[in-house]
Amino acid sequence: MVQKKSIVDCYDRNTHDYLGSFEQTDENIVNYVAGLSPFQSVYLVEQLTDILILSTIGNFLDQVPNQQWLHQILPLLIAKQTGERPIKSVPMIHG
Predict the structure, then answer these.
(1) Low-confidence ranges of the chain (pLDDT < 50)
(2) Residue 41 zone, left/alpha/beta (φ > 0; ψ -120 to 50; rest)
């Protein structure tokens, strides 16, 4: 049986407009957040369950319900935001 890939839906935090979706991997989430402009605030929501993964204010994390996961991804996010590691583009799936 093929496991269905989890998808993340992205929404503008101010207008609630749908911005697109991408495959749910730590790498994709970190690259997406690190690549946000300081003026862009978003919600990232798990498509299947409609559970909030995280929200941002600009390219900074605001709400991250899963604190254990946050500690896991934070070093990579910081490395990308400080320029230590390159930010890769995230392949978007538009619905």
Answers:
(1) none
(2) beta
